[in-house]
Amino acid sequence: MTVQLDWENLGFEYRKLPLRYISYFKDGKWDEGTLVEDAQLHISESSPALHYGQQAFEGLKAYRTKEGSIQLFRPDENAKRLQRTADRLLMEPVPTEKFIDACKQVVKANADFVPPYGTGGTLYLRPLLIGVGDIIGVKPAEEYLFTVFAMPVGNYFKGGLAPTNFLIQDDYDRAAPNGTGAAKVGGNYAASLLPGKKAKAAGFSDVIYLDPATHTKIEEVGSANFFGITAENEFITPISPSILPSITKYSLLYLAEHRFGMKAIEGDVFVDELDKFTEAGACGTAAVISPIGGVQHGDDFHVFYSETEVGPVTKKLYDELTGIQFGDKEAPEGWIVPVDL
Ligand code: PLP
Ligand code: COI
User: Fold this and answer.
1) Can you give the pLDDT at residue 159?
2) What is the pLDDT at residue 263?
3) Which of 21, 57, 260, 325 could bond 148 through an S-S bridge, CB–CB 3.0 to 4.6 Å?
4) Which positions bear N6-(pyridoxal phosphate)lysine (predicted)?
5) Which domains, and CATH codes, for the chain?
């Protein structure tokens, strides 16, 4: 490898890599798509993505194995979620094959930036779909731009596997009960900026959002899903039409049940029943598994396992998930997609 970076301490920052993929949908069809050096997008000033938020994105990672090969984790699931998001916003969906091919091309073209095995780093891929063209009324675009760019990343929450604390938020919601919470659209994240800023200024890693209709149940942990472990060997994660269906979360539900014999449950997580959890964590592509030390809710501060140490079940799940992602453990059928270099 010719590229030298501080691979162990990458954090989660934008870095401009040599090449990205770009494809246009015009006159009713997608073009071939191509790799380009230009990291600027040239779009109409009236693009619906800019004015009315007709845009969607994804996040997935490429992992370097011990042998030096590179692999993707469940990219078909990201492709399908982008298609569901596109349906919700009346955007042109990107076919699964095109999506995966674009990801592979970007990884291959920037392979020197996939962090070495053992550093904890990965190559984060950001697929983005936006409505473009000369439209000013509130209506769907007729032209779309699909791009995939990438950057090497490390920890999203600064603790990594060390627990950090979160703030349960009563004053702000990230999504409406029947809104776009389950879709990966920029508007949800715009709504989370102010509460996120306030939580961070108060010393927390991020906000825990409650269900927007009743404010009695936990929904999301910033840009990740919530899970809790009980003394009865249960893995519980919230179910709601306004949370983003996390691919990491569904992977953990499967591993908890099929590899560790736990009872895997998607159900209500009432904020006044947190005592039943012996451990809790945030999970997502960027977050991986980030243990939740304590949560502040009004004047109450609740600690799950410990504010300083990761719990044993969380650690076991982390090792299994990342073992699969980095190619050290056998993956369930179809979870790993190799990138030919
Ligand atoms: N929830 C939100 C709001 C997110 O932005 C993400 C990130 O993608 C997740 C959950 C985790 O989803 P996934 O595991 O598919 O990355
Ligand atoms: C991801 O985990 O891929 C995300 O999209 C989180 C992010 C918004 C940083």
Assistant:
1) 73
2) 98
3) 21
4) 184
5) 20-153 (3.30.470.10), 164-324 (3.20.10.10)
Nearest to 180 by CA among 170, 172, 171, 190: 190
Q: What is the mean pLDDT of residues 13-36?
A: 98
pLDDT of residue 293: 97
Residue 2's pLDDT is 79
Cα(29) to centroid(ligand 1), Å: 29
* Tens of pLDDT, residues 280-290: 999 999 999 99
- Catalytic site residue 276? no
Using a 6 Å cutoff on CB, does residue 199 contact ligand 1? no
Provide CB contacts within 8 A for 299, sequence distance 6+: none
Q: Is the pLDDT of residue 133 over 80?
A: yes
CA of 215 from ligand 1 middle (Å) equals 21
- pLDDT above 70 covers a percentage of the chain that reads 100
pLDDT surpasses 80 at 7: yes
pTM for this model (two decimals): 0.97
Mutate to test the pocket of ligand 1, among 77, 180, 223 (most ligand atoms within 8 A of CB): 223
Q: What is the pLDDT of residue 160?
A: 81
What was the pLDDT predicted at 1?
62
In the set 61, 104, 184, 217, the catalytic residue is 184
Which amino acid type is present at position 101?
D
